[in-house]
Amino acid sequence: MHTPLDPVELTVHLMSIDSTSGREGPVIAWLDEYLAGRGWRTQRIPVTPGRDDLFATAVDGPLVTLSTHLDTVPPFILPRRDAQTLYGRGSCDAKGIAAAMICAAERLRDAGLPIALLFVVGEEVTHDGAHAANEAFAARMVPSTSRVLINGEPTESTLAVGTKGAIRVAARTKGQAAHSAYPHLGHSATRDLVHLLAELDDIGFPTDTLLGETTVNIGGLSGGVADNVVAPWAEGRLMIRLVTPADEVVRIIEKWADGRANLEWGPMVPPVKLGVVDGFETSVAAFATDIPALPNWGTPYLFGPGSIHVAHRDDECISLDELRKSVDSYEKIVRDVLGKMNF
């Protein structure tokens, strides 16, 4: 029997290692050695050269997997704390969650329950770590018989009943360069784009009774070559949060563009309905997660301490009290879902 872990101290250790997306190798290596030293059977799942996921279990046929991501958005911000709060990159998204999961998993393991841990990379960019883990499960590269996946993201210690999906699209307009003193000799791509984007507010996007409204964010604008040149090109980059199948929104956006802009579609994450447990408050997560990329790992649940509203900010933080209490919550969720399996 190992000494019980302190989730705050473990979070600080994880946060002290820079693992911004694409640079996760050192944190995976540290955690691999750490978990192995505490009696876990660990296995790396290759993602790209120098980047692996980490799977850990203590039994041959784990039924429930606790999973989150260890990559963070830039910039790397070292941890600091006061009496109530831990600050820094990954405090809530999602190294604090990883630490709480490990603490809960050790309790469950010591009670003889069939638990596993899965820590992935690349969630903040392309979800490539989740895709690699899903393929590894299908190919039986990992010794898992997981029937439930409890994913961790900051949900303010509520169980999310669903997550919105997401899709990216770039809208590009084409013009004709000319001297800005004679605009009639050219055609402004930036003007076309501005007028086109203004129409987005009038579009009727789909809604869902559980997940709410489809939302559209104009995340980036670029175009033109100089102030004294009529702009020959322009681009707007959109992120659309989905509450229905992506095809519905694709058709709406294509009708909106209607030949006035070229569209380039990016990665898509579908919306997902999730499992619930009695005794927990519920919420809807407007953000995307790794869950849609991990269907082979079982029925999905989503829970985590901390608020998404401070994730990705320079003042990212988590309450020490909430972080410690989440260990009990993860243990309760696992015991509940195992009870439903009559384990």
What's the layout of helices and strands?
Blueprint: H1 7-15, H2 25-37, E1 41-48, E2 51-57, E3 64-69, E4 80-81, E5 85-87, H3 95-110, E6 115-120, H4 128-138, E7 148-151, E8 159-163, E9 165-174, H5 189-198, E10 207-208, E11 212-213, E12 215-223, E13 233-242, H6 246-257, E14 262-269, E15 272-273, E16 282-285, E17 299-302, E18 317-319, H7 320-340
Parallel strand pairs: 3-6, 3-7, 7-17, 8-16
Antiparallel strand pairs: 1-2, 2-6, 4-5, 5-18, 8-15, 9-13, 9-14, 10-11, 12-13
Helix pairs in contact: 1-3, 3-7
Please describe what this structure looks like:
The chain has a six-stranded mixed beta sheet. The protein folds into two domains: 225 residues, Zn peptidases (Aminopeptidase), CATH 3.40.630; 105 residues, Alpha-Beta Plaits (2-Layer Sandwich). By secondary structure, it is an alpha+beta fold. Helix 1 packs across helix 3 and helix 3 crosses helix 7.
Provide a compact summary of the structure:
The chain has 343 residues and is of the alpha+beta class.
Backbone CA Rg: 23 Å
Enumerate the strands of the largest sheet in spatial order, edge to edge or round the barrel.
1-2-6-3-7-17
**Annotation, overall tally of beta strands:** 18
Number of helices: 7
Q: State mean pLDDT (0 to 100 scale).
A: 96
Euclidean distance between termini CA atoms: 23 Å
Q: What is the SS-derived class?
A: alpha+beta
**CATH hierarchy, class of the largest domain:** Alpha Beta
Largest sheet: 6 strands, mixed
Order of helices and strands: HHEEEEEHEHEEEHEEEEHEEEEEH
